[in-house]
Amino acid sequence: MYLGRFAPSPTGPLHAGSLVAALASWLDARAAGGRWLVRIEDVDSGRCRAGAAERILAQLADCQLLPDAPPLYQSQRGAHYQQMLDVLLARGLAYPCACTRRDIDAALAAHGSAHQRHHDRPYPGTCRAGLHGKPARAWRFHLEKYLSNWPQTQTSKAPAAHFSVEGSRLRWQDRRLGAQSQDVAREVGDFVLRRADGLWAYQLAVVVDDADQGITDVVRGEDLADNTPRQMLLQAALGLPTPRHLHTPLVRASDGEKLSKQHGAPALDTRAPLTALAAAARVLALPEAPRQGTVAQALALWVGAWRDTYNRAP
Questions:
Q1: Is residue 114 within 8 Å of residue 223, measured between CB atoms?
Q2: DSSP 308
Q3: In whole angstroms, how large is the CA radius of gyration of the chain?
Q4: Closest to 240 in 3D by CA, of 264, 268, 215
Q5: Is the distance from CB of 107 to CB of 126 less than 8 angstroms?
C-alpha cells in the first residue's frame, strides 16, 4: 500500500516553491491509489512561528490538498527519537561530540579544507576516540564504524534497501533524477543526531517518523536529495525500511537562489487556488488545466498526467 507525505516546517506560510512539493507528493499518492499524510516538522522550535502550522494547513485546504489522517507534529515525538538514539548508542553507532563549528572549521583548515557555502561541514572525527574531559555538546552517528562493518550488517534481517554501498560511496536511484551517488564519509562524515542546543537533528527525526508512519515513497524538493544517503544509512542501521524517493524541481528567485522563506519568498496567495496550483503544475511539467474549470477538475487532470510520467517504479 502506497503511503506518502508532505512535511513542511512551520517557519512561515507556504510559498510557491513549497506548493510544488506539496502538489507533487499529493499527486504521486493519488496516482498510485495510495494515502497522503501531512507531517509538521516543528522540531526546530527556535525557527518556528506561532500560527504558521495552522496557516499551512489552511493553505493546503484552500488548494483541496487534504491529508488522509490528522497531521503529525514532530514536537510531540521526542521520546520516539530518544528511543532510537538509545538503540544506536547500545550498538556503538552513536557517540557524544564536544566540537563547536569553530573547532570543526579549524580541524578542516588544518587538513587543507575550508567550509563551502551551501555545503555541510564534513566532520573530521575529532571526538570518535572520546571527549578527553570536554563536555558533550551533540551526539553523532558513527558513520566510519558502520561503513567499516557494512558486509556484516547485510547478513542481518534488516528490510531490503533501495541502495548499495561501495566503500563509503552510497548509490541510489531517484525516480526523477535517476542514478545518484555520494561519498558520505568524505562529503559529510559522522553527522549529528542530536544538536548542541538539545534539539533533535532533522536526519534522525525524519527517519523515525517515516518508519513510524509507514511511508513508502518520499516526494520532496531536490535541494534535499543530498540528505537521502544519510537517511538511508540510518534506516539500515536501525533495521527500518527504506522508502523510494522522487525529488522535484525547485522554484528559483531572480538571482538563481532557491525560493525560500529565508530568502524572503512571499506567502502563497490561495484566494485563487487554481492560479497557484497551475503555476506549481507548470514547474512539474504537467499540462495546462482549463482556466474555466474547477480545482477538482484540474487535480483530476494532473493525477492522470502524473500517472503517465512520474509514477513508475525506480
A1: no
A2: H
A3: 20
A4: 215
A5: yes
Beta strands 3-6 and 35-40: pairing type? parallel
C-alpha cell read off for 66: 487534504
Residue matched to cell numbers 561501495: 166
pLDDT band, very low/low/confident/very high, at 105 (cuts 50, 70, 90): confident
Q: CB atoms < 10 A from the CB of 239, how many?
A: 13
Encode 155-183: b = buried (16+ Cβ within 10 Å), e = exposed: eeebeebbbebeebbbebebbbeeebebe
Neighbours of 54 (CB within 10 A): 12
Amino acid letter, residue 185: A
- Coarse DSSP helix, strand, coil percentages of the chain, rounded to the nearest 5 percent: 40, 15, 45
Contact 56, 24 (CB under 8 A): no
Give tens-digit pLDDT for 252-280.
776 656 666 665 678 899 999 999 999 99
